[in-house]
Amino acid sequence: LLILIGIAVYLLWKKICLLPSYEELTNSVTPTHPDASLEDQTLTQPSSVIQPKTGAYVIGSINPELYKFPEDKSETDFPECNIGRLWFSVQYEQEAERLLVSLIKARKLQPPTDSCSPLVKIYLLPDERRYLQSKTKRKTLNPQFDENFIFQVSSKTLYQRTLKFSVYHVDKQKKHHLLGQVIFPLKNETFTGDSKLVIWRDLEAENLEPPSEYGDIQFSLSYNDYLGRLTVVVLRAKGLKFQDARDAASVYIKVSLMNHNKFIKCKKTTAVLGSPNPVYNETFSFKADQTELDTASLSLSVLQSAEGDKTHLLGRVVVGPFMYTRGKELEHWNEMISKPKELVKRWHALCRNT
Q1: Which residues of the chain form CATH 2.60.40.150?
Q2: C2 domain: from which residue to which, for each copy (predicted)?
Q3: Which residues have CB under 8 Å from 211's CB, separation 6+?
Q4: pLDDT tens digits for 151-167?
Q5: Who contacts 3 (Cβ-Cβ below 8 Å, separation ≥6)?
Q6: pLDDT tens-place string over residues 118-140
């Protein structure tokens, strides 16, 4: 009997003490008419209700800012003197040893006339005799290609190859006028699985000057006065004259920093096989105080590997202040100093008596 009485008292206490309690709001929001003005609705809100500020959202609501995709500025941000931009993607199938190139689109082409009928020729350097060609798009400065191309290339030589996209305008007489080109070395790319990354590059104008006697080299210079760093980007060479007739000639470029004709430091590019027009696209940095720029210089030597440890000098160019250089080499150096932190790109003729 005592146990039953105890259970009954416990259940009664639980029912009374654990009932949910509610607190009545002292200030309630007065509903507003849908046609009421924003000012009238603001006046009807009680002072105890806090209005969310701009950029803040009530708990449980969706913040649209979190679901926005990053803005693609590749079709809106074009630098001055831009002659066009090209979009493409590259993928490599290891088992079939096939390089898949997807040509996507081009924008803001600059033809010699008002109308433009563009097409693109795709080369896999160093082979410049064979190429794959897109369809011609009629009367458009912003062609959409969406075409796929296949190059058969072994995995051993893949990273020594370079893609070259040449964009042409086809006139009414079917003549091709080069609008610009894109050089894309494969050595810095990582091909994993079936991933396909969309790439865009600005078109470059082709150097129409005939090759010099020993060939030419293109590189960029930049100086960061804050860090005291001199940067050289070795891009490519063309028209090189090999010392012998070997097809598999191996060519590299040595970049040396000098001060008062005293050797400071040198760096080398990787060797490229079998092409008189090798592409490097390699960057080197040197420490150089701003006070040393009047006495420093850069020497870029193009060297061909021979049997054993021997090398043949194919040509050299020196850029620096008035103490060492004249002409285009001096202009390149002075432009680099006048435009700090900006890459200044130029072609230079090679010589062998520098």
Answers
A1: 85-202, 216-349
A2: 82-201, 213-334
A3: 238, 239
A4: 999 888 888 888 999 99
A5: none
A6: 999 999 988 888 899 999 999 89
Three-class DSSP category at 162: strand
**What does the DSSP assignment read for 194-211?**
T--EEEEEE-B----SPP
Q: Which CATH superfamily is domain 216-349 in?
A: C2 domain (2.60.40.150)
Residue entry with tokens 């062609």: 143
**Confidence (pLDDT) at 134:** 94
pLDDT band at 218 (very low <50, low <70, confident <90, very high): very high
- In whole angstroms, what is the distance from residue 182 CA to residue 166 CA? 7
Q: Tokens 């500025």 label which residue? A: 73
Which CATH architecture group holds 85-202? Sandwich (2.60)
Residue with tokens 């930049």: 222
What is the value of pTM for the model shown?
Answer: 0.60
Cα separation, 330 vs 319, whole angstroms: 6
